[in-house]
Amino acid sequence: MEWIEDILVDHNPLQAVIVLSCIIALGLALGKIRLWGISLGVTWVFFAGILAGHLGFSIDPAMLYCLESFGLVLFVYELGLKVGPGFFSSFRKGGVKLNLLGLGTVLVGTAMGIVMSFGIGIPMADMAGIIAGATTNTPSLAAAQQALQQLGMSANGAALSCAVTYPLGVVGVIIAIILMRKLFVKPTDIDAGSHDDDDQTFIATFQVCNPAIYDKNIREIASFSPHDFVISRLWRNGEVSVPNSETVIRKGDRMMIITTEAHMEALTVLFGAHESYDWNTGDIDWNKIDSSLTSKHVFVTKAEINGKRLGSLHLRNTYGVNITRVMRSGVMLLATPKLVLQLGDRLTVVGKDSQIDKVAKVVGNSEGQLEDPNLAVIFVGIVLGLLIGSLPIALPGISAPVKLGLAGGPIIVGILMGRFGPRLHVVTYTTRSANLILRGIGLSLFLACLGLDAGAHFVDTIMRGDGFVWIGTGFAITVVPVIIMGLVALRFSHLDFGSVCGMLCGSMANPMALSYSNDTLPGDNPAVCYATVYPLSMFARVVIAQILVLVFM
Asked: 326 φ, ψ to 5°?
């Protein structure tokens, strides 16, 4: 029995690792359970930690804080790396609208929290935790706790109020989505199509019948159009070739062109007749189109290629091939000369087998090299994020400076590294599985420590009067902003219901509700809009959590 006591009760590093590992294992096992098609996933780790704390388990407080902080930093930094490449491109026309709606959801919930804090008499320290739990946004809880500690106040109330409101925060968004669909959504509001993305490629074939481009080379023709396109193959007199910028176009030539769907009308005017055959289905064998050319995928695995523009490699003129598309993070990009390549990019190369093999040697094409994440860059990025997070930011009307903290600093650096790292020849690539593992470890550590810390007083908090008030307040802060902004997005912004659900799930930082939306709605609009809105909304919540504490305490 002394042996059991040593490994489960006495505070030491071994005991801390065993207790947290058991909590995480139990939580992840429970996370696989689905009730009525809904699973709480990794959130169960939080509740497993609460259960362990309630049963009397604990670990050394300093070690608890260290592991909780490291888990949070690792999670948000890896999340920033993941969304960084597409974050700035989301601020196109549709992205700006989505982010404004997402910020509207954040502000409505915050305003409700402030009003209810004064109206019901809930201290702002507790209300900050209620808002974090109601929006399932644990980084904002960490930011509020850090602001409270900065003021020399206890952060236990915020952790407890977050703990008791978190469960209904998870299911509240799903309930609100179900209510909206039952009461307000018309059949025409549900769009099965994919979310528009200017980067997504579209393949088409054209018959040249525009006299204005007869006997002109491709470089001259490209100068006539403001839109990017790549000519993959050219058929003339029964023969196929890979054209380059000096290839002269003749009347009656048939060309396969890769562009974006939005530019199809303009390119039809430029080249002539657009053939009706659909080349964008997923079941086309590109190597059976003609016998003399091959289409293959090669991967960028050489570090020296990272950050270089595709045109600077001169692959077309040197090897007589065309790079038509680039697959990056699940998105197919148009292979324009100005495209900056990143480690892990998958290039679609059209040409002769022998020439494609030479291109593969230039870019690497060694998939095994991609399996090893660049850990040095990860930890350098974390250090930079912590330094930025610790910088004091003076805001008018606030006596104490605001800090981005453990959550805000690392996610900003992660976004910037993910977006601009390759341009600076910094290798930030990690495989999807490696990114998911690091994020999962970080989030699990954070939730386990958070739950263990709050669990000792969890049941007592619910049983006293404040607990039920917190739960009701949190549920209102979850449901009401979602329904209000959902109706605004549907009726005034005229978004389809899938996009609305993705926007709401992203602004509420609720991946469980996103999973429900993906399972019940056609198309990929929910996932795309979630990724578009999530970074800015989470950053706003992190900053707002600190402002609430510093202004109203």
From this structure: -130, 120
Number of structural domains in the chain = 2
3-state secondary structure of 350: strand
DSSP 339: P
Q: Find the domain containing 131 and state its range.
A: 2-193+375-552
Residues 111 and 164 in one domain: yes
Per residue in 500-543, pLDDT tens? Answer: 988 998 888 776 677 677 767 776 677 667 767 877 787 788 78
If one counts every other C-beta atom within 10 angstroms of the C-beta of residue 338, the result is 9
Domain end point (choices 334, 349, 369): 369
- Which residue has tokens 């981005």? 404
User: Pick from 219, 188, 106, 229: which is nearest to 545 by CA?
Assistant: 106
Same structural domain, 422 and 438? yes
133 close to 474: Cβ distance less than 8 angstroms: yes
Q: In terms of DSSP H, where are the helices of 261-365?
A: 264-271, 315-319, 353-363
My answer on whether 144 and 228 are in the same domain is no
The pLDDT of residue 111 is 94
Tell me: do 362 and 379 sit in the same domain. no
Question: Contact at 8 Å (CB) between 305 and 282?
Answer: no
Distance CA 93, CA 196 (A): 11
Give the 3-state DSSP-derived string for 86-145, with helices as H, strands as E and coil as C: HHHHHHCHHHHHHHHHHHHHHHHHHHHHHHHHHHHCCCHHHHHHHHHHHCCCHHHHHHHH
Same domain, 265 and 380: no
Examine the domain organization and report whether 460 and 399 are in the same domain: yes
> For helices 156-183 and 43-54, what crossing angle results, to 10°?
140
What kind and span of H or E run contains 214?
A: none
Are 9 and 72 found together in one domain?
yes
In this structure, what is the dihedral angle of CA atoms 224, 226, 228, 229, given to the nearest 10 degrees?
-30
Comparing 427 with 267, the larger pLDDT belongs to 267
Q: What six digits make up the tokens of 380?
A: 């350098």
- Let me know: does 537 contact 106? Beta carbons within 8 Å: yes
| pLDDT score of 394 | 73
Band (482; pLDDT cuts 50, 70, 90): very high
332 and 400 co-located in one domain: no
Residue with tokens 């018959």, as numbered in its chain: 207
Domain limit, last residue, from 344, 369, 394: 369
pLDDT at 147: 78
**CA angle in degrees (0–180, nearest 5) for 60-62-68:** 95
**Listed residue (404, 381, 385, 383) closest to 393, CA to CA:** 404
- Higher-confidence residue of 299 and 433: namely 299
Question: In whole angstroms, what is the distance from residue 176 CA to residue 184 CA?
Answer: 11
3-state secondary structure 397-448: CCCCCECCHHHHHHHHHHHHHHHHCHHHCCCCCCCHHHHHHHHHHHHHHHHH
pLDDT computed for residue 465 by the predictor: 63
Q: In what order do the strands lie in the sheet with 272-274?
A: 239-241, 230-236, 254-259, 202-208, 272-274
Considering the entire predicted model, what is its pTM?
0.68
